[in-house]
Amino acid sequence: MKIKTAEIVMSAVKPEQYPEGDLPEIAMVGRSNVGKSSAINTLLGRKKLARVSSSPGKTRTINFYLINNAFYLVDLPGYGYAKTSKPERAAWGKMIETYLSTRENLQEVIQLVDIRHNPSQDDQLMYNWLKHFGYGSLVLATKLDKIKRSQYQKHIKNIREILEMPPESKVMALSALKKTGVEDAWEKMGSLVER
Ligand code: GDP
After folding, report:
1. Is 29 exposed, middle or buried (0-12, 13-18, 19+ CB in 10 A)?
2. What pLDDT was estimated at residue 52?
């Protein structure tokens, strides 16, 4: 897919603020610092559309990026930041649950995990949640440049096993640093929003 236009149209905290209309959406979610902002910027070929956070855990809004006037890429706030207070965590949970359970435009939610590490307990909880809502057919492994090529299959296998991914689900891998994996990701993601 060629990205012709990409613009942020809304930072929402409640459903009334979600964009109107029936354009399809693909959302992305992951532990804070997993590389989600970098991945979004890389996928969209933009340097600073999504803010690469100097203070992790600060993005507490659902950000809607309108792509090619055809669909939205939706940036969900990250989880698992150690300094987040209990009330903040509860607010995050409510905001995400509301979005996942009510948003009719939503086609798929892509979970991001760091390719170097076994998915954390929070990652597992999140992925189970996604499966519960009927999502999770795609997982995006970030920071691909941080592992040796020879270790790739082993890491992907670990991610699949620990998240208990269904056989038909797919793992993609991306390096925001080297800009690798972009075409493959759009090949898989594009089919979700084509009409
Ligand atoms: P977010 O909190 O999930 O949005 O994560 P960020 O995009 O802000 O990235 C967190 C940190 O990981 C930053 O220091 C990034 O420079 C770094 N990072 C993100 N993606 C990559 C990648 O593909 N390769 C490498 N080497 N570092 C990355």
Report:
1. buried
2. 62
CA of 53 to the centre of ligand 1 (A): 9
CATH node for 6-193: 3.40.50.300
Task: Report residue 153 as tokens.
Answer: 């299959």
State whether the beta carbon of 31 lies less than 6 angstroms from ligand 1. no
- The Å distance, Cα 88 to ligand 1 centre, comes to 23
User: SS3 sequence, 147-182?
Assistant: CCHHHHHHHHHHHHHHHCCCCCCEEEECECCCCECH
Mean pLDDT, the chain, whole residue set? 93
ipTM: 0.99
Centroid of ligand 1 to alpha carbon of 121 (angstroms): 20
Q: Where are the domains of the chain?
A: 6-193
Measured distance CA(150)–CA(8) in Å, rounded: 38
Nearest partner of 72 among 55, 94, 49, judged by Cα: 49
Which residues have C-beta within 8 Å of that of residue 170, sequence separation ≥ 6? 137, 138, 139, 188
Ligand 1 contacts CB of residue 35 (under 6 A) = yes
Q: Tell me, yes or no, if the pTM score tops 0.80.
A: yes
How does DSSP classify residue 48?
S
Q: Is 177 in the pocket of ligand 1 (CB under 6 A)?
A: yes
